[in-house]
Design goal:
This protein is an alpha/beta fold. Helix content is 29%, strand content 12%. The protein is built from 10 helices and 10 strands. The longest helix has 11 residues.
Length: 285
């Protein structure tokens, strides 16, 4: 059964005690934000939630941030959070679904389809004065068998090849200034610019002022306006694979269920001396 990739706060409030439901707080901040997502979770979270640490449930053998772990590591980590293969997972985070969309994509990348994102996230839940819990939960461990779906993930080799073939469209979720090289990157030592042939679509354009995803007609206009052909293969990218997942989620709601994410994204691409960088404006910019 195919279920919606987004659920409302009303839906979650109604189903929060369903025995097959698992809620994950995937709030994430840039390292320079000066905020501690885990500490904030301990202070206040949606009742029943566990903390999905994007920086910990990751490949710790690389210097690149929060890269996907191997399937066994992922299965063991989410099993320890009390999540099994039979559970429906609802992910939430902060403003504009940052973190939540990455968790959603990660579960899908490891073969778990019954996963959705809370539209509006914790900010909307708070605005509606819904209940909150505090403290560190102690979930009962569950069994989760993960299997990577490589078609949803792109690596450096695939992106290099695509610069040559242009078989897939590459859509960049970073700000337009970072894309064109007129704004600095937030990570030290990285030049700004973009992968040759990619188009710019800052992820925050996908949201209403209240932090919820825009409706279908608006999303269609936004992706079309950026020059994205939704009938052709699409890979999304960003600074480190987080907001790229937001674009993938937006595309998913439009029926593009196989959009891939370049996991290493700009941190990997611009961190090398042997990858081409462009600063010219994309058609949709």
């Amino acid at each position: 059964m195919t279920r919606a990739a987004l659920v409302s706060t009303d839906w979650l409030a109604t189903h929060i005690d369903d025995p097959d439901l698992r809620i994950v707080d995937a709030t994430w901040y840039m390292p320079n934000a000066g905020r501690d997502a885990r500490a904030e979770f301990v202070q206040a979270h949606i009742p029943g939630a566990v903390f999905f640490d994007i920086d910990v449930i990751a490949d710790r053998r690389t210097s690149l941030p929060h890269m996907l772990p191997d399937a066994e590591t992922f299965g063991r980590a989410v099993g320890a959070l009390g999540i099994g293969n039979r559970h429906r997972v609802i992910a939430y985070g902060g403003k504009n679904l940052v973190g939540a969309a990455r968790a959603w994509w990660t579960f899908r990348a490891f073969g778990h389809h019954d996963v959705a994102v809370l539209d509006g996230g914790l900010p909307r839940w708070r605005q509606e004065s819904r209940p909150l819990a505090s403290g560190v939960p102690s979930p009962r461990p569950a069994s989760f068998t993960a299997k990577l779906r490589p078609e949803l993930v792109r690596d450096l080799a695939a992106m290099r090849d695509n610069v040559r073939t242009r078989r897939e469209q590459v859509v960049d979720a970073r700000s337009h200034g970072r894309f064109t090289g007129t704004e600095p990157e937030p990570r030290p030592g990285l030049q700004s610019g973009h992968i040759p042939g990619s188009v710019s679509l800052p992820y925050d354009r996908l949201f209403r002022d209240d932090g919820r995803l825009r409706d279908t007609d608006e999303l269609v206009r936004i992706f079309d306006g950026a020059g994205v052909d939704r009938t052709r293969p699409i890979t999304t990218t960003c600074g480190s694979g987080i907001t790229a997942a937001v674009l993938a989620l937006g595309l998913h709601t439009l029926g593009c269920h196989d959009a891939a994410v370049y996991d290493g994204s700009w941190t990997e691409w611009a961190g090398r001396a042997d990858t081409p960088v462009d600063v010219t404006c994309s058609p949709g910019g």
